[in-house]
Amino acid sequence: MAEKLKNILETIQLFDKISLEDMDAVRMMNRIDTKYVFQSAKLKDLLNNSKEQYQVLQIGENRTFQYNSLYFDTEDLDLYLAHHNGKRPRFKIRFREYMETGAVYLEVKKKTNKERTRKSRILAEKTEMELSENSRLYIEQQSPLQASALKPALWTIFHRITLVGKNSPERITIDYDLSFQHGEKEKTLPSLAICEVKRDSIAGTSEIMKILKDLGIFPGRSSKYCLGTVLLKDQVKYNRFKSNILKINRLENDNRSYPAAG
After folding, report:
1. Hey, is 144 helix, strand or coil?
2. Maximal C-alpha separation, the chain
3. In CATH, which of 3.90.550.10, 3.30.1540.10, 2.40.320.10, 3.30.559.30 is domain 2-255?
4. Residue 174's closest CA among 158, 155, 191, 156?
5. Which of 110, 111, 148, 196 gives the lowest tally of CB atoms within 10 Å of its CB?
6. pTM for the full model?
7. Are residues 123 and 105 in contact, defined by beta-carbon separation less than 8 angstroms?
8. CA distance linking residue 128 with residue 20, whole number of Å
9. pLDDT digit string (tens) for 32-63?
């Protein structure tokens, strides 16, 4: 992993940079998402082939960032099951910690009937293990959920690279070095990377989607919260995600023989 991280850090230095302030023009809080799951060994190829068309987010001297997210759900995992069963609209509730900046947000994500993702958020003083009155009020303003029924359900921890199109209104997030925690249980997926292409609509050309296709990487469905739930929690319904688990197992096996670019 150390050599892989070194390659990633070297490659993203080849990109032009964009500041957090300049990136506000493509915040994509209401968007269409397309997700890709692939071998992290292919990440250097993806970045090398994208450096002319995209800028990389830089904050201070950092171009890769650690995100810690604590998801909330009901005792019966109603939010997880809504995703598993394809319910629309559906919601995710989480605190997200931006480790390099120290910022913490309470976020409410909604998947609409039209397959759009809408995200709203407020600054929080810290990640709450028990929802405060202010947090419960915000959740109930942004969703039909009963906030008093929500409890901490799963931690996701990962590193992220954020790209912005030079000539297209796109925001690309690439997550790698993923791990999940629930109680005393932990699962790491060092061989896995998740790329999410965020656009205002499905119309128009996306250079990175062409690059992904050329690398043999194709769209799929992937929710880090749902994935972690399946991997760490016993007796949870997951038949809709069986293909995802099989793919991840295959990617982890294939990654051992994939020749990373030098």
Report:
1. coil
2. 52
3. 2.40.320.10
4. 158
5. 148
6. 0.91
7. yes
8. 26
9. 889 999 999 999 999 999 999 999 999 999 99
